[in-house]
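for the recovery benchmark. tokens below, seq after
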């Protein structure tokens, strides 16, 4: 996808054809990602929605992030639009306002998932919340004024170098098990290799399976269904001693 794209000039209606952009030694990976974002009409429309949303009372620093941006950059199948922000506005109110903005801008409804980081306890700022996401490749975002956010400092470089890096674990409630299982899915879907410390987490994660609630255990079905190569996923479940624990939930 990086080989040849259309670059949209935000200051005019011109569209410029960029040939073999990834081979331009004067451009960093971050710059290439930004050009791709600017060239994508659908994402530009969504960022215009975020721009209008950012001006509403009770909304601070909204950022499109997590799976939506990860899959855009890594060419995965995009799903929900993860929009995180801080302030006083509640998630359900935010969704209603976003729907109104879409109507005002003549856009069809998209599958938005607005989340106020303050209400969920993921940090005082939006960037602190993003930095707490499970893996660095999820902890990358884009603002409405086209600023790439990478609060861990590893997200973009890990995408470029195909590395899986876990950000956090919480052994008290089985978080380590979830980090391991979702990490395995990412390894399969994006052909990633785990960083050394993440490989150790993957090896140990099965020991925390029984700390998960029954509902959390059943969520493995959704992780499995979102995996592109299910045979490879099962192969890695066996490698990391998960398979016998989770097979009845698949």
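predicted aa per position
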């Amino acid at each position: 996808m990086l080989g040849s794209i259309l670059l949209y000039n935000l200051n005019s209606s011109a569209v410029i054809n960029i040939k073999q952009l990834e081979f331009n030694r004067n451009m960093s990976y971050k710059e290439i990602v930004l050009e791709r974002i600017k060239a994508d009409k659908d994402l530009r429309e969504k960022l215009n929605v975020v721009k209008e949303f950012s001006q509403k009372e009770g909304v601070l620093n909204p950022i499109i992030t997590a799976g939506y941006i990860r899959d855009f950059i890594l060419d995965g199948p995009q799903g929900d639009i993860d929009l995180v922000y801080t302030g006083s506005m509640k998630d359900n109110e935010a969704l209603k306002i976003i729907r109104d903005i879409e109507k005002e801008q003549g856009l069809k409804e998209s599958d938005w998932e607005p989340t106020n980081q303050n209400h969920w306890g993921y940090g005082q700022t939006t960037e602190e919340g993003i930095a707490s996401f499970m893996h660095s490749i999820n902890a990358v975002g884009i603002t409405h004024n086209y600023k790439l956010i990478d609060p861990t400092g590893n997200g973009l470089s890990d995408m470029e170098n195909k590395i899986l890096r876990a950000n956090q674990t919480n052994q008290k409630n089985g978080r380590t098990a979830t980090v391991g299982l979702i990490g395995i899915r990412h390894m399969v879907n994006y052909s990633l290799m785990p960083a050394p410390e993440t490989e150790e987490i993957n090896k140990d994660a099965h020991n925390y399976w029984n700390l998960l609630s029954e509902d959390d255990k059943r969520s493995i079905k959704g992780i499995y269904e979102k995996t592109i190569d299910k045979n490879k996923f099962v192969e890695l479940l066996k490698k990391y001693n998960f398979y016998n624990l989770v097979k009845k939930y698949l």
